[in-house]
Design a protein that fits this description.
The complex is a heterodimer of chains A (154) and B (579). In chain A, helix 1 runs antiparallel to helix 2 and helix 2 packs antiparallel against helix 3. Chain A starts with 7 loop residues before the first helix and ends with a helix. Chain A is α+β, with helices and mostly antiparallel strands. In chain A, 45% of the residues lie in helices and 12% in strands. Chain A has 2 domains: 56 residues, no CATH class; 77 residues, Glutaredoxin. In chain A, strands 2-1-3-4 form a 4-stranded mixed beta sheet, covered by helices on one side. In chain A, strand 3 and strand 4 form a beta hairpin. Helices cover 34% and strands 13% of the residues of chain B. In chain B, the strands form 5 sheets. In chain B, strands 2-1-5-3-4 form a 5-stranded mixed beta sheet, sandwiched between helices. A 4-stranded parallel beta sheet of chain B has the order 11-10-13-14, sandwiched between helices. A 4-stranded mixed beta sheet of chain B has the order 12-17-16-15, with helices on one face. The longest helix of chain B has 21 residues. The termini of chain B are far apart. Classes of the chains: A alpha+beta (154), B alpha/beta (579). At the A-B interface, helix 3 and helix 4 of A face strand 7 of B. The structure holds iron/sulfur cluster (3 copies) and FE2/S2 (inorganic) cluster. One iron/sulfur cluster binds next to helix 4 of chain B.
Chain lengths: 154, 579
Amino acid sequence: MSKRMFSDELDAFINTWAGKPGNLIMVLHKVQEEQGYISREAAEEVSKRLGIPLATIWGVVTFYHFFKLNKPGKYNIQVCLGTACYLKGGDAIIEELGKEIGLEVGGLSEDGLFSLEAVRCVGCCGLAPVMTIGGEVFGKVTKDQVKGILDKFA
Amino acid sequence: MSIHLTINGIPVEVEAGTSVLEAARKAGVRIPTLCYHPDLKPFGSCGLCVCKQEGSAKILRACATPCAEGMKIITHDDELYEVRRTIIELTMSTHPSSCLTCVRNNKCELQKLAIEYGVREQPFEERIRERKVDDSTGVIVMDPYKCIKCGRCVQVCQQLEGVYALDFIGRGDNTTMSPAANLPLNSSPCIKCGQCVVHCPVGALYEKDDVGKMMKAIHDPTKVVCVQMAPAVRVAIGEEFGMKPGEISTGKLYTALRRLGCDYVFDTNFGADLTIMEEGSELVDRIKNNGVLPQFTSCCPGWINYIEEYYPDLLENLSSAKSPMMMQGAITKSYFAEKAGIDKKDIYSVAIMPCTAKKDEIRRPISAYEGGDVDVVLTTRELARIISQYGIDFENLEESEADSPIGEYTGAGTIFGVTGGVMEAAVRTAYNLVTGKELDKVEVESVRGLETVKKGTVDMGGVSVNVAVVHGMANAKELLDEIREAKKSGKKVPYDFIEVMACRGGCIAGGGQPIGTDDEVRTMRSNGLYTDDEKCTLRRSHENPSIKKIYSDYLEKPLSHKAHELLHATFSEKPLYKD
Ligand code: SF4
Ligand code: SF4
Ligand code: SF4
Ligand code: FES
C-alpha cells in the first residue's frame, strides 16, 4: 500500500475528526468526495486511523446507498430498472452493454472509461427505458442504439 | 433497590435493571425469544418477546425493557400470540425447511418454536435466497442460506470476543452477517473460537465435520490410532446423552473411544501436567533471571490467533510452551512411539476437544514430527455424534482407565479446562519450584469464578507474584492496552503472570461444546472439573508419577534441549486481513 493514500487536505481532515463521535460518516464522505468511491485500501486506512474495525466500516458503506464501492469510470452509466423502465426493457440495455463493452453492473470497462450502475427510477418514466451517461439523459433507448450512444463518449 | 411488578397478575420482586424478560422467568413465565441470549446485551431484532402493559396498547420488547415499579405486564394474550405466530411464520418463510439434513436438527431454536406454536403449514410465500456456503477456514462453516439474521453471531464476535470479524453487511433483504469487503472468513481477523457457532440459534454456523477422517484411520489396519481428550470434554459430553452438565464421564469416554476402535486411549490432562512443568519452569526462570514479564499463557489457540493479529508487539510475553494438546501429540509420536516400538509414521493421533480453534491449531507449523503431531481434532459434539451412530449406550457404559505411560493425570491437569485453572495449576507447581516446599492449600479461590478479569497476588515463599486471569477475548483488551502502554513508556508492568482464554468461562464453554451454554451451565461444568480435581489423590502436576518418569527417562528436565525440541514453539505476527 502506498504511503500517500490520501491528499494533505484529507489527511488533515481525518486528523481533526479522529476521536470525535460520529466521525466515521464524515470521513467516508470526504474520502468518496476525493477518490470517487471507497476502495478496500481506503477503508483499511480509515480503519487504522480512526481505530474502527474494517467490518464495521464495511457495514456502514454497504448500508448507505450513497457510498460507492467500485471505482467509477470517466463516465458513469446509470440504467434505470424502476418498474416502467424494467417493463420497457431496461434489462436489455444492461445486457447490450455487457455484449458491447463487457460491462457488468457495479463494474468498470477495461479502458476505465465507463462504469455501470443499475438504479431505481431517475424521475423521467415517460421516457422509459432510460439510461444516463455522465449525467446526460437518454430516453426510449433501444438496444440497437446503445453502441451509437457510447461512441459519442469514446 | 428492589422493584415490584406483576407479570400476568403474578407479583414479582426484582433488582433494579432487571429486564421484563428476566422478571417473567422469575414468575415462572417463559416468553419466547430468538435474538436474545443471556451472554449478550439485548439486541431487540426479532420482536418475538413482545408483551404489553395492562391498559396500554403499546407493544414492548421484554428483552430490552427494564422493569419499573408498579408495572403490570401481560405476556400472553390473543393479540400477542398472533404477533408471535406471524413472526415465526415469516421467519420460516425465509428459511429452508431442510431440518432432516441439518446439523442442528433437534437443537434448533426456530424448530422448537415451530413445534411450540404448532405451525403446520406455510402461509407466506417462500423468500429464500440462495447463498454461498463459506467453509474457507476449514474450521467454522457459515451457511448464510440458513441464516435468520438474528445478529447473535455479530454480537458475539464483537462483544464477547472483540474480534470484529463479522458485521451486518448490506441492508434490507440483502443483509448478511459477513466479513468486510466480501472476503471469505479465512481472510478476516476470525480467531476460530467458534463462539458464533454455539450462539447461533439455527444451523447457519457449524463446525467442519472431521468424523470421517478419524473413522478412516480406525478402519485402516496399518494405522495405530492414539486418542487424547481434553479436560472440558468429560464434564459436557454427557449432556448430549441426557446427563446433567458437569457430570464427570472420564471413564465412560475412555471405554467409548476403545469401543469405537481406538488402539490407545490417552488423556490431554497428562499433557496439561506436562505443560505446567514447562510453563511453570519458564515463569520461574523469567522471574529469577529478569526475563520479560508478564508471561502470558499459551494454551488457547483462539488467544494465540488474537495476539498475533492484534498485539504482535506483546508476543515476547507469550510463553513458548505449546498447548497441552500439542504436547500430548508430540510425546505420543516420540516418547510413546519409541517405548511401544511403533513407527511414528504409523501412528494416527486424534484429539477430542471442546474447541473449534484446535482444528486450526494443528495446521500451525509447530509440530515436532513433520507429518504433524496431531492428525485430526474432533469437537465434543462430533464425538457425541459418532458415539450415537455406533449404538453405544453412553450413559450406562462401564468405566475404564487411560493407557500408560501418558494417560495418568493430577487434579492440576484437569482444571485446565476452566477459567483460572491454568493459573491455579501453575501456582501449585511454581510454588514448589521456587521454595522447594509444597503449598498447604492447593485451592486458589481468587482466580475461580466467572468474573471477567480476576486479579490477585500469590506469595511464593517471600516472592510475591502478581497474577491476572481473563476470559472472553474482548475482556483482555483493557489489560493488554495497559501492558502495552506501560512497556512503551518504560514503566514497570504490574503483572507477572496472566492467563488468557478466548471463551467465556474457559474451555468448558468452548466453541466445540454441546449447544445451549449459559452461565448456569458454565458453572455446573466448572464445578464438575473442580470435583474431578478434589477426587484426585495427587493435585500438583510435579507429583504425577508418569510425569516424573517421562523426565527421568526421556526429557531430562523442564526446558531441556529435548523439551524445547518437542514441547516449545514460536509465534509470529499475522496481518488482520489476509488476502
Ligand atoms: S469463530 Fe470467533 S472470531 Fe471467528 S467469526 Fe466466530 S466469533 Fe468471530
Ligand atoms: S448466522 Fe446464526 S447467529 Fe448469525 S445472524 Fe444468522 S442465524 Fe443469527
Ligand atoms: S478457551 Fe479453550 S475452547 Fe475456547 S478457544 Fe481457547 S482453547 Fe479453545
Ligand atoms: S428476543 Fe427480544 S427482540 Fe428478540
